[in-house]
Design goal:
The structure is a single chain. The protein is an alpha+beta fold. The protein has one domain: Nucleic acid-binding proteins (OB fold (Dihydrolipoamide Acetyltransferase, E2P)). Helices cover 23% and strands 37% of the residues. The protein has 3 helices and 7 strands.
Length: 132
């Protein structure tokens, strides 16, 4: 009985640590001194905790194609703002403003997402709004 209990507790702890590790603070992952503004088409949306991710295909200045991944707020936060996964439709043209990942990869925080009709939504967590 004690071994079974210890196994359950151990497995639960490992699962919890995975979630804690996946949730990050803005300054640990993104550089508030490196703003980005990417224009392109949404090609994928991952609507899940702890943060949503969506991916935008863009054309680089040299003419090559690149995919950028943007981290947003948790789904519950976005839904309370009236933003559901149907707002970020695959194939939609968007301009995404945020801050580049510290590792220099094509990942960034997703601040403002602007659509061709001028409508925009703020997809970042409140902690990402104004880097310190």
């Amino acid at each position: 009985m004690n071994k079974r209990f210890a196994s359950v507790v151990g497995a639960s702890l490992l699962a919890y640590l995975g979630v804690v590790n996946a949730h990050h603070s803005f300054p640990a992952v993104f550089d508030g001194t490196k703003p980005v503004a990417i224009n392109g088409k949404i090609v994928r949306v991952e609507w899940m905790n702890p943060h949503i991710w969506f991916f935008v295909q863009t054309t680089e200045p040299d003419g090559s194609s690149a995919e950028w991944g943007f981290s947003g707020a948790p789904p519950g936060v976005l839904m309370r703002r009236g933003i559901n996964k149907d707002v970020l439709k695959i194939g939609a043209d968007v301009k995404v403003e945020g801050f580049r990942a510290r590792d220099g990869s094509n990942h960034a925080s997703a601040g403002r997402v602007t659509f061709p009709d001028g409508r925009n939504v703020f997809t970042a967590s409140s902690e990402d709004a104004a880097p310190k």
